[in-house]
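USER:
Class, as today's exercise, take the chain set out below, and explain how the chain folds.
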Amino acid sequence: MTLFERFLTLWVGLCILAGIALGQMLPAPFHRLGNLTVAQVNLPIAVLVWLMIIPMLLKIDLAALAQVRAHWRGIAVTLGVNWLVKPFSMALLGAFFIGYLFQPLLPPAQINSYIAGLILLAAAPCTAMVFVWSNLLDGEPHFTLSQVALNDSIMIVAFAPLVGLLLGLSSISVPWNTLLLSVLLYIVVPVIVAQLWRRLLLRGGDAALARTLHRLGPISLAALLLTLVLLFGLQGEQIIAQPLVILLLAVPILIQVYFNAGLAYILDRRFGVAWCVAGPSALIGASNFFELAVATAIALFGFQSGAALATVVGVLIEVPVMLSVVAIVRRSRGWYERGAGT
């Protein structure tokens, strides 16, 4: 890791504080940026996500995707955690913490709405940011791309019935335009752009590709930090207005992230999955597709609802928490690789 990457957690903390402060001092520019949306997808953030993930997608040789079949155990573990464990564990955590333990501290009329928002957050696996986390781990990029594409395909079919089951709704209005546009913006278009760019670079040989990747590394991390400034600038008013509610909502989200990441990581080790696959597997198992969660919460419950706020809390803590998971997985590599069969 470079010196900048080694202190990334510090830069993240400073950007969070800067975002909150700038959002309070200069609310108008942040509101204008926040309003630049199509189907609830924020376009400035989409551009920053492109800057984050296209350098990582440049590393992927689509011809090598056939080799992912060798990592079927990692794929099975991640799918199981994403679709059979995470939504149901979040429903239980939400019911315990929000519906019982923290209930006296929260507005009674919003309790069910908060729990619904937490479920929406856990029901959709992350689409774009996992490329960033996988890259920080030196994870197997072909596995990451294949797993994300597979999750997106399942999400189109399973998201609505799964959320409907957990929320007890006979029918659920999924913002399909948000789902499809997000997949298009965060997966399809970046993959096409990266592969076309990769082919052009390889005309100059592997050295030309390596030089470009080296130059793009700082740009990718800078885009991550700018995304934080923008997100916290947009939500700074919520943080200052309802700090206790946000803190309480963060508790089940934090537990859910570490539980599901740890479960995937341990299962991967038990089944002899290579560490370069187990790391992305754990991160994909833990992270959330917050754009879809926020859009669905707004569509179902309204912009000012507790459900919308709960999904926004997921947005706020996603980057710092996932960086901590990255650090844990990196530092535990020696322990992991001492496992039998890995």
Q: What stands out?
A: The chain has one domain: 9-334. The longest strand covers residues 37-38.
